[in-house]
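Lab channel / #folding
Pinned by the channel admin:
"Please post every new chain as: sequence first, then the structure tokens as a reply. Keep commentary short and put observations after the output so the thread stays searchable."

First post following the new format, from NK:
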Amino acid sequence: MAKELTGKVYDIQGFSIQDGPGIRTTVFFKGCPLTCPWCHSPESQSFAPQLSWLAARCIGIDTCGRCLPLCPRGALSPGERVQRPGTGEEIRLVRIDRSSCDVCGACARGCYPKALEICGTDYTLDDLLARVLRDRPFYENSGGGVTVSGGEPLCQPKFVLPFLEKLKEAGIHTALDTTGHVPADVVQGALAHTDLFLYDIKQMDGALHRAATGVSNERILDNARLIAAGGGKIQIRVPVIPEFNDSDAAIREIGVFCLSLGAAVEMVQLLPYHNLGVVKYQRIENRGKVLEAVPPSEARMHELVALLKSLGLDATLH
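Reply from TO:
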């Protein structure tokens, strides 16, 4: 018997109002071909499940310790003693031997404070549809729908494209949050079932783009043109990153490219860099490059929005 098709999801957020029109449910798929050092969701980069460990939630092995005997590989052991912020209470944390852990999830299932969690859950199409359709009343009353995000959701095309198709068959508005760094035929396949593309443009300089993200921007720009030519609707999203694309010249170049896409571009949204994702790298012990910089000021962000508006674009802060 053939194995049922599944997609790997690391989060589902209901009542989302930042990922398209109205009230939405956003489904975050694991896996991304880019390795942006400013990524605020590093758990989205790997295609494999990962064990996340949040020390602030742990109540200590002296009080609990339920996770220790649950690990079949002995990857958990008593760790360091620390003081809880605020109370000063001393607790002993758990230590994780990542080299022994096979991410079976036994410890996470037994961790009631949710200090240990597995990032990456397999869903069948029917199960995921049932989950998002529970929120249909919110979509209908607000003009919302379902947003498919990541990572890069189109890196799981055999699951995501049928998922988008079934959402459209159910009368649900669909938005696709994408880096655009996927084969053109995959983007073409998404066009028929996507009402709105939330499309990342990070840098027009190809060498700078590759140096920062690990990939060229050529495919990304070509796919944006493909969507525009195919009648797709696009909201361009630009993460404003210190010393990467926060200059007037870099933002102007992106704006000129957006103008070249014509009426397909409904809006350009600027997203100010923040460092809230740094702690997530620690939670999964991701040893990739991490950007820690001073976020752009609100005044600077408004200057860049004004620059884009001066080009004739509908621009806003996200």
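NK: The chain has ten helices and 13 strands.
TO: also worth noting, The chain has two domains: 6-48+121-317, 55-119.
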